[in-house]
Structures are given as structure tokens and as C-alpha cells.
Amino acid sequence: MMQSDFVCPYCGMSVPVDFRGWSCPGCGESLLSICGEEPADWVDGDAVVRLRESADAGNPMAQYDLAVLCDIGSFGISDEEMVRLLSESAEQGFAPAQERLGMCYFHGDPTEQSYEKAFRWVALAADQGYAPARCDLGWMYEYGLGTEKSVEKALELYRLAADQGSGYAQFNIGWMYEVGKGVEQSYGESLRWYRLSAEKGIDAAEYKIGCCYADGLGVEQSYEKAFEWLKLAAEKGYAPAQCRLGRLYDDGDGVEQSCEEAIKWFMLSAEQGDDHAQCNLGWMHQNGRGVPRSYEEAAKWYRLSADQGNMNAQQFLGRMYELGKGVPQSYDEAARLYRLSADHGNDYAQYCLGLFYEEGKGVPQSYDEAFRWTQLSADQGNQHAQCNLGWLYQSGRGVPKSDEEAAKWYRLSADQGNMNGQLRLGMLYEKGLGVEQSYGKALELYRLSAAQGNDDAQCLLAMMYEHGKGVEKSYSEAAKWYRLSAVQGNGYAQFKLGWMHEKGLGVEQSDIEAARWYMKSARRGNRLASIRLDWMLKR
What we know:
This protein is an all-alpha fold. The protein has helices at residues 32-35, 45-56, 60-72, 79-91, 95-107, 115-127, 131-143, 151-163, 167-179, 187-198, 203-215, 223-234, 239-251, 259-270, 275-287, 295-306, 311-323, 331-343, 347-359, 367-379, 383-395, 403-415, 419-431, 439-451, 455-467, 475-486, 491-503, 511-523, 527-538; strands at 6-7, 14-15. Strands 1-2 form a two-stranded antiparallel ribbon. Helix 7 (131-143) runs antiparallel to helix 8 (151-163), helix 13 packs antiparallel against helix 14 and helix 15 (275-287) runs antiparallel to helix 16.
């Protein structure tokens, strides 16, 4: 049964329950019960007096309006009085009061928290066709709050409310299409509903449209349009939009790059408690972007975000504890944070936790656990974990030894450009372990890794040139790559460069240069370098 008309508490005019406005069409006085807004500053004292008189006489609309005034401003009405007024209005069947009372129970403010009582009152309002209540009731069905979970009923209620023009219901339908909940997933249909919601001024919908443009979901990708929509929502104070807008400024996408503007928007969002913005602020402070570099400030913001369960912040803060940057060094605390992040599915935290178990840092040493966490990370495509998983298979740690499996994981890592994966796969090709032996493929992989600055790959590439493996022998090329490796501190490359200077192979013969490089290598524990150096000094 639909709710009947109500009498204006000020002039007695009959007002339709679906009327939308700030004032009675008869007398111009405020009608908070049906206006959909909650203004406070313009409510004068005389209006409150007349409203109270009407409420005391039992007018449900006046009772509701007076309760709303208490909720949005100080008019000498206690929380207990507000609940009493809402309850009396709701008991008379006034749908807005039923919905608002239900949401008081839903949030536990200022009443006790009870999803069951919330559901009862909201359902009564929804049964009268009150759009906000239909939207609220849909939410309760969607998540099984106070009732049995039913996505189908949720969607039905959202559609009813959306047909009545509820921007929030339109937004909820858009989200269901975005994730494919109760409907076939469709970014295009999701965007259509978000646009309808945004026309009602719903900031969350404006944010979602901005994200669609930024990510090219259901629409042609455009950072410029993303910026327009995100700024619209951000300027209304919507925290997620402020955070995403900060990212656009930080990356210079759709707007001139500005770390200072990024910091501004991240801060506005973070101060509202947005965990992603807090994490981003930590990153900006850690890397000195738009602010002086401060590991202490970075740790502060990471911690605020991590305490809310942000897995990236947990991983970043774990890394800071591992290295002792901005916080006291602690493998135990690093391991704890890595585990929290890893349990949420963060692939890099899973990789780090695997390394901790492999080396016994902050956790009992266990190759089995190392393999388990490394596998989880590698399965998500983490190139570092794929490389390390290959090493665990090659060395038979935590898993039966298998050069074939090692080669498989090294290849996955190498294909992503990981220089260590390229190096290790090259070594397998050079020796013919788990793959068909090929100096040519080994050389190619060593080149890729060496070009990224891997000193071991540079040293092995030099050896290929020195001995003519897969390439024409060239002492000059060998000396070049040994030198690149040696200056990075590679002890064996330093020894070989000393040898080439001593013998004049590919470089000008020089006992002084030979002794210099032998000495560097010997300091790194190379016994052959120590022997050659002693021999030269005794000559």
C-alpha cells in the first residue's frame, strides 16, 4: 500500500508524499521530511517553535522534521528525544521516519546497533514505495544484513528505487554491472548507470566515471576526461576521487605533472582516512616527491594505512623494518608485516616472506615454507619470485630437484625482462641443464642481462668472448665486459681483468694495472688473485 498525502505542519496544505522540494508549495515553509536535503542555517527560531507545536500535536511529518533538525543542528533536542520523535512518526506509518529510524539502528547511532531492527523499519518504508528505503533495503539484502542474503532481491529493489530517480540506487546497479554481481558483467552497462547517478550529483558515481575513463573500461581511454570527472568528485570532498586525482597529478596523466598538487590531493584524502591516499603519501615521503625525503614521515603514513589493512602499505612498511629506514631495524616486525600483506595476496610480500623463510630472517628457517610462499608469488606473475622459484627447483630446496622445472620458471622470469632470470636461464643453456645445450642462446641471454648491468652476466659474457663460445674469440671484447663487471665489484671479473693486463690480452700489458686489479680481487677473498699478486711481488 502506497503512503497517502500528508498535511503541511505549517499551513495545513495537503502535500503528496513524493513531493521533492525544500519548502511547502502553499506557505513556503521548510519541509525537511520530503526535501531530500538537510539544510540547517536557514531554519529560524519561529519555524522551530511552530514545528515543535505541530509535533507535540502528533503530526508525523512535524515529528520527523524536528528529529532531523536535531540530527543536523543544535536546537535543544537530545538524542533520546530525537529517537522518540522518529519512533512516534514511524509508528504512524510515515515512511521517511521509518527509513531514518531503521538507519539509526543500522549504524548504532544514536540507538543500539541492530541489523534486525534496521531491516524491520526500512522494510516498512520500502513497502510504501519510499525510494531511499528501497535502496537501503537492497543493500541489506545484497550483504545479508538483518536478513537472508539475496542478490536477486537486492537488484530488484535497486531497480525499483532507480526508476524513481534514486541516484544511489542507480550507482549500486552500476557497481553490480561493473563486477558482474547478479547480472552479466558489462562495463558499458555499468557506465550507463553511473552516468544516470552522476546526473543526480552523486560524487561516488562521478568518481567511477573518472576511473572508467582512466582505465578505458566501457569507454575509450582518456586521461583528460578522467581528470574532469575525478576533479568534479574530488572538489565535493569525495576521498577516493581525491586520491585518484592525486595519482593523475603525480603521473602527469591528463594534466600537467605536479608532485605538489599530488601531495595536496593525497593529503585531503588521507586526512579523511583513505588508506590508499595514506599509502601514497608514504611513498611520496619515502622518495622525496613534492616533499623533502623523510623515511620517518613515510613510515608514519604507511603505518596509518597498514593499520587499516592496506596490503601495499603493509609490504612497504615491512621493507622499511627490514632495512631499518625510518624505524628501528627488525626482521621480526618485517616478517609480521610481510605475512599480513602476503595473506591479503600481495605478490611482492609473498616473495619477500619466501626469502625470509629461505634465509631464516624473523622466522624459523624452512625451505618448505620458502617454496610455498615463493610459489604463491610466482603464480601471480612476480618475476623475482619466478626466478627464485627456479633456483629452489635447481637446488632442490623445499622441492625435488628438477632442472626442467627450473628452466621453466627462469624462462617466465626472463621473458618479463628480469636480469637474474635471464642470467640463470643462460647458465642452463651454456651447460645443457634442463634444456638443450646452446652457446648461442646462452650468449643471447647473457647479453640481455649484462645490458641491464648484471655484473655476473657481464663476467660470463666476457668468458664467452675469451674462449670463443657461441661467438668469435675476442680478447678486447672479453676485457671490455670484464671491466664493466669488475668496476661493480665482481671479484672474479677483477681477477680476470688483472690476468689480461698481466698477459697483455685485449688490453695494454701493465704489471701495475694487473697488480691493482689482483689486489681488489684478493680483498674480496679470491685465492687465485692472492697467489698471482704474491708471485708478482716476488719477481
